[in-house]
Structures are given as structure tokens and as C-alpha cells.
């Protein structure tokens, strides 16, 4: 269906389906980590994936920008089907921003250089333009004054906001968040969540693996509950939190919400 | 706090202001006490060291400075064998530096040294301007310039000087520089190949590294200089110096590959993932994100390898090249300079030369490390 898909990443008209996962199966050795995952994410949709650890949430997220590959099934991101073709993989990665649990900022580069690296070397943007763009996003995550510092000088919350700005500098159509607040001290969780809430208000497609149930309630269009490598329940957040259908979801919510 | 010893709750009434740290015991005596004579074991060690210095240093000073022969010639040295023979170094110095390079052409070697020193300073001074141009100069322009200068180019009016006439510091510097300049990029490529996902590439890299590392440098040099002509017809066989250069570069690359591999292993996996998630290609990821961190992490080991390589250049004498140490050795065997003190003087001079070069590298690496750690990496 996408033999002639535009790989430039700047297609004028984006399909209504941002991410489509069909019959996805993945094994780590003998361990069946993702089992028959089917998921359709509409453009602009905000999805929170939750569930017990080891349930395959992060692995699923990492398949969407092909940081992990899989054995069976297919994933189509913004009309580009992910195959072994490196061109397609790069095209998808340019279109999809990712924020990691451990921030993964480049420690040898300043905050500003972290943000301009990909625009300059992947989008071939002139340095000045890339710096202006980076400052725009650093302003948005409210740390323009840290631009010339090295990441090690920043607090965890600041580092994570830089990581968000770095991803946004590629003007992605889809953002993936892999437990963005799990490595943070409690007093820094809010500043990162606030940034993400603002981002959600802008209408970007978001997939967030998180245990922040308050965040899920506030911004998610749908909540996906995963356990044992399977999608166990998909529901609107009010429904999911008030009337979880599946026994395992109920158990999980009892433990998380207390 | 006055509310009784049993109280479990506490509320601070007055803020505790920050105080300056207590002054250390100052003065020379205090320092000596604290660092040299702080206990029985430490005091014993200090006394042993003082005794050793008192035993070893005065004779050395006497031989190399106070009783040394500073002027005159070979006869003056033979007359006083209890002191170092510095005229030996003075008389033979140009041989130590140039070997048999024709006297009339030695300005070309001097110019080469100058161009090399300029390149090194420009490239290595962290505050120097346009270090990207410096790299271009050092890795592209300088090799061409050096070849034209040292080997000669009849078209430009520079007579060809066969490498058999090269010698001394010139050969040492050429072998060491070529070894370093080639071993780093080749070592990086080998290290990357060794971590490649392609089994053929990986196997080739592992095979090369393990083979070259598994044999002594002397063997590599022998193979490069003796075995190569067996396979290649005589007239096609490369120059003797070139063969040694290839051998040294190969040897150093294999070691450098392992050093770089250690540095690569020190870069967390998250760095690779972040770079790939941004859409960087493999080479951009390596060049912009991974290698800068890996090379910084392993800089002390890189310099260590360079220092080892610099001293290993002394082994090229085995294939008939006259490096610096070999010229000292040859001069020492000159019948006119047969006094026993000449050897000791020559070797001390050689030791000083190697020490200054290696210590310089070590200090430079130290400066860079301090600067990098101050740049906020940790």
C-alpha cells in the first residue's frame, strides 16, 4: 500500500492514522515479549500506556521508531511501513520524537548543541537557523537561560525538559515518551508533566508510557493497559479508572492508586 | 534544645549560618608532620627514601655534571674516564639528528621539523584558532610537504635523498608520527568493525587484531621487510623505510583498536538510542555522539599507546634502519670514541630525549583531561 510512500518526512498531507500496529509479535530469545499487538492511533490522539513492569510497554514504544525490531507483524508510521530498509527507518525516526526515562542527553555537548545537532546534521539546517529554532523550544520548556550549560550541570527535571526540546527541534509529528518521569526526584515530576500537558494541548500525537495516573486522567484520549506482553484493555481514561473491565487492570489500579 | 533530653520533636529556632572550614595546620613543619612523618610506617618509608636518594643521586651528579668533560675532544674524554663525555654528544649531534642525510640538504630536514612542530602546536593547542584547518594541514598538507621535502622532488629542484641515508631523530620522528597518525583512524575503524553487526566484517577485524597483537613488533617488522619481497618482485618491493612504516602502523592500529573498543564500551547504550531516535545515520551517530565520548573516556589509554609506540620505534634498527638510538650506538662504536664514558653519556642523552618526548605527551594529555572534566562532563 505504501510502495510509493514519501520518505522525505515532510509530506504535506499526513494520513489520519498516525500509527498502525498489526499483529505484532516479538521475542527476546525464547521470551515472548509482545504478543499479537493490534493498535491504531489516530492523528492528534494522546495515548497513555500503563501496566506492570516487564509487560512490554517500553518494548512496544521502541518498536514504533524501530529501536527494537520484531519477528512478526507490521507497523506503519505516518504512512511509511517499517521494514529492514534503512531509508524507511531513518524517515520514520526523523518524523517521530522520543524522550527516554534516563534523558540520554549528550554529555559532551551543551544544551543548545544537544538541540541543534539533529536539525543541522539530519535536516541540513543552517547553524543560525537551528539555534534560533532550539531557543524557541528551550523557551517553551522554560529553560532558555541554561542553553550554554552542559547537561551534567542541570537537575533531572531540567535535563528531561531539554530532552523534550531536543526531540521537538526535529518538528516531529509523533512524540514517544518512555517513562519520562520515572527517574526523577518527586519534586521535579511536576515540571516535566506540565511541559507534556502543554505539548498535548498543541495537538501533537503522543504515546506515553507512564505510571502517572493523574497525567493520564488529564490528557489521555485513551488508556492502554498492557500485561504479559499483551494489550489487555483499551479504554477512555474516565472509564478505565472508574470501571476497569479486566481483573488484572483492577488489581494494577488498586496497587498504583491505593 | 532546652526542652529536656526525652523530647523527640525538634524545631529550629535560629538558622545555622555557614562557617568557613577550620584552618589547616599551616607551615612547613605542619606539612612535614602530616605528610612525611605521620606514623611509624610512614616515617620509616620517608627515611628509606632519603637514604636511597642520598645513595643514588650524588654519584650520578658527580659523573654527569661535576666530573664530566665539557670541552675538548675524544682525547680529553679518554684522559678522564670517571666523568661523562659531553663532547661526544656535541661532535656527533648532527649525526644523531640527521643520520647520513647529505649535509647540503639538511635544511630540508630542519624545515620538516619546523613544519611538523607548527602543525603539532596548532592542532594540539586547545585555544588555537581554526583547528579544523589545523587538522587539514596536519593530515593532508603536511604528509605531502614532508614527502616532497625529505624524499625530494626533482621537478622542484630538490634532489632525491634515498631513505637509506635517513637516520637519527629524523627516522625516529618519521616512524613515530606516521605510526600515530595512521594508528588512530585505522584503530577506530577496526574497533567499529569489531563491533559490527556483519559477521564477515567482525571476523576480519578480530582476525587482524588478534593476529597482529599476538606477535611481537619485531616479528611484524621482520615480516614486513623480509617476507614482503618474497611475494612481490624485487623492483616492485616498497622501500625499506616504507615497509617498516607499514609494519609499525599495522601494529599500532591493532593496539589502538583495542583501546578504542574499551572507550566505546564506556559509552552507555542510551547514547546510541538517543542518537538513532533523532534519525542520525550510523556514521553521523558515531562521529558526532559516540566517538567524541569514547575517545575522551579513553584518552589516557590512547596517550599510553602513543608513548609505547614512540619507544617501540627503537626496534626498527632490527630491519637495518638507523633510528636515533641506533645512531648513538653506532657513534659509540667509533674507534676514536672508544672511551667507556662515551656509551654512558650517549645513552643518558638518548634517555633524556625519549623522556622529554614521552613526558611531554603525558603532560599534554593531563592538561586535556583536566580541561575536559572541567567542561562539565561529570
Q: Would you mind describing this structure in some detail?
A:
The complex is a heterodimer of chains A (258) and B (378). By secondary structure, chain A is α/β, with parallel strands linked by helices. Chain A is 37% helix and 24% strand. Chain A is built from 9 helices and 10 strands. In chain A, α6 links the parallel β7 and β8. Chain A is globular, with a radius of gyration of 18 Å. Chain A starts with 16 loop residues before the first strand and ends with a helix. The N terminus of chain A is likely disordered. By secondary structure, chain B is mainly alpha-helical. Chain B has 2 domains: 30 residues; 292 residues, Orthogonal Bundle (MetI-like fold). Chain B is 70% helix and 0% strand. Chain B has 15 helices and no strands. The longest helix of chain B is centred in the C-terminal third of the chain and has 38 residues. The two termini of chain B are 41 Å apart. At the A-B interface, α2, β6, α3 and α5 of A face α11, α12 and α15 of B.
Gist of the model:
The complex is a heterodimer of chains A (258) and B (378). Chain A is of the alpha/beta class and 258 residues long. Helix content of chain A is 37%, strand content 24%.
Let me know the number of strands of chain B. 0
Mean of pLDDT of chain A: 91
Which CATH top level class of the largest domain in chain B fits?
Mainly Alpha
What is the count of helical runs of chain B? 15
Number of domain units of chain B: 2
The quaternary state of the protein chains shown equals heterodimer
Instruction: Please count the beta strands of chain A (DSSP E, at least 2 residues each).
Output: 10
Order of helices and strands of chain A: EEEHEEHEHHHEHEHEEHH
H/E topology pattern of chain B:
HHHHHHHHHHHHHHH
Give the fraction of residues assigned to helices of chain A: 25-40%
Architecture (CATH level 2) name of the largest domain in chain B: Orthogonal Bundle
- Largest sheet properties of chain A: 6 strands, mixed
Amino acid at each position: 500500500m505504501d510502495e510509493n510512500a514519501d520518505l522525505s518526512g515532510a509530506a504535506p498531507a499526513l494520513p489520519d492514522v498516525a500509527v498502525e500496529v498489526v499483529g505484532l509479535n516479538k521475542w527476546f530469545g525464547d521470551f515472548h515479549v509482545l504478543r499479537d499487538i493490534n493498535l491504531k492511533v489516530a492523528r492528534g490522539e494522546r495515548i497513555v500506556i500503563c501496566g506492570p513492569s516487564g509487560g512490554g510497554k517500553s518494548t512496544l514504544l521502541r518498536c514504533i521508531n524501530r529501536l527494537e525490531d520484531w519477528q512478526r507483524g507490521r507497523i506503519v508510521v505516518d504512512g511509511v511501513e517499517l521494514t529492514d530498509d534503512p531509508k524507511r527507518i531513518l524517515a520514520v525516526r526523523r518524523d517521530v520524537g522520543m524522550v527516554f526515562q534516563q534523558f540520554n542527553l549528550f554529555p559532551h555537548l551543551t544544551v543548545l548543541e544537544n538541540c541543534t545537532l539533529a536539525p543541522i546534521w539530519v535536516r541540513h539546517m543552517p547553524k543560525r537557523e537551528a539555534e534560533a529554532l532550539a531557543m524557541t523550544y528551550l523557551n517553551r520548556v522554560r529553560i532558555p537561560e541554561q542553553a550554554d550549560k552542559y547537561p551534567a550541570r542541570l537537575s533531572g527535571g531540567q535535563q528531561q525538559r531539554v530532552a523534550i526540546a531536543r526531540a521537538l527541534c526535529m518538528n516531529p509529528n509523533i512524540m514517544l515518551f518512555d517513562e519520562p518521569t520515572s527517574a526523577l526526584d518527586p519534586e521535579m515530576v511536576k515540571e516535566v508533566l506540565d511541559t507534556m500537558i502543554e505539548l498535548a494541548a498543541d495537538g501533537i500525537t503522543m504515546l506515553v508510557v507512564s505510571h502517572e495516573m493523574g497525567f493520564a486522567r488529564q490528557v489521555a484520549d485513551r488508556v492502554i493497559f498492557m500485561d504479559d506482553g499483551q494489550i489487555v484493555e483499551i479504554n477512555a481514561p474516565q472509564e478505565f479508572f472508574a470501571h476497569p473491565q479486566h481483573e488484572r487492570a483492577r488489581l494494577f489500579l488498586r496497587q498504583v492508586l491505593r | 534544645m532546652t526542652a529536656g533530653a526525652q523530647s523527640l520533636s525538634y524545631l529550629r529556632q535560629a538558622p545555622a549560618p555557614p562557617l568557613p572550614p577550620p584552618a589547616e595546620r599551616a607551615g612547613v613543619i605542619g606539612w612535614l608532620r602530616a605528610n612525611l612523618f605521620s606514623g611509624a610506617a610512614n616515617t620509616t618509608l620517608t627515611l628509606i627514601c632519603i637514604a636511597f636518594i642520598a645513595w643514588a643521586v650524588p654519584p650520578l651528579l658527580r659523573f654527569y655534571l661535576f666530573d664530566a668533560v665539557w670541552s675538548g675532544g675524544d682525547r680529553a674524554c679518554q684522559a678522564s674516564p670517571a666523568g661523562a663525555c659531553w663532547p661526544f654528544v656535541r661532535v656527533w649531534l648532527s649525526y644523531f639528528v640527521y643520520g647520513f642525510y647529505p649535509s647540503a640538504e639538511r635544511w630540508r630536514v630542519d624545515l620538516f621539523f619546523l613544519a611538523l612542530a607548527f602543525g603539532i602546536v596548532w592542532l594540539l593547542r586547545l585555544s588555537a584558532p581554526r583547528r579544523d584547518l589545523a587538522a587539514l594541514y596536519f593530515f593532508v598538507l603536511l604528509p605531502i610537504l614532508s614527502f616532497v621535502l625529505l624524499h625530494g622532488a626533482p621537478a622542484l629542484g630538490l634532489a632525491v635523498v634515498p631513505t637509506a641515508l635517513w637516520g637519527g631523530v629524523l627516522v625516529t620522528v618519521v616512524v613515530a608520527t606516521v605510526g600515530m597518525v595512521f594508528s588512530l583512524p585505522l584503530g577506530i575503524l577496526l574497533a567499529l568493525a569489531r563491533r559490527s553487526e556483519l559477521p564477515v566484517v567482525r571476523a576480519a577485524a578480530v582476525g587482524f587484531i588478534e593476529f597482529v597483537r599476538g606477535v611481537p613488533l619485531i616479528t611484524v617488522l621482520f615480516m614486513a621487510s623480509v617476507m614482503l619481497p618474497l611475494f612481490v618482485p624485487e623492483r616492485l618491493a616498497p622501500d625499506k623505510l616504507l615497509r617498516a612504516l607499514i609494519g609499525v602502523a599495522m601494529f599500532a592500529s591493532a593496539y589502538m583498536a583495542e583501546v578504542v573498543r574499551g572507550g566505546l564500551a564506556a559509552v552507555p547504550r542510551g547514547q546510541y538510542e538517543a542518537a538513532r531516535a533523532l534519525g542520525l545515520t550510523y556514521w553521523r551517530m558515531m562521529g558526532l555522539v559516540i566517538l567524541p565520548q569514547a575517545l575522551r573516556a579513553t584518552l589516557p589509554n590512547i596517550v599510553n599507546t602513543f608513548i609505547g609506540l614512540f619507544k617501540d620505534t627503537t626496534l626498527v634498527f632490527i630491519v637495518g634502519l638507523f633510528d636515533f638510538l641506533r645512531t648513538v650506538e653506532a657513534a659509540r662504536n667509533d674507534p676514536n670514541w672508544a672511551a667507556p664514558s662515551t656509551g654512558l653519556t650517549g645513552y643518558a642523552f638518548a634517555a633524556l630525549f625519549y623522556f622529554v618526548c614521552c613526558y611531554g605527551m603525558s603532560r599534554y594529555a593531563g592538561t586535556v583531561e583536566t580541561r575536559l572534566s572541567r567542561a562539565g562532563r561529570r
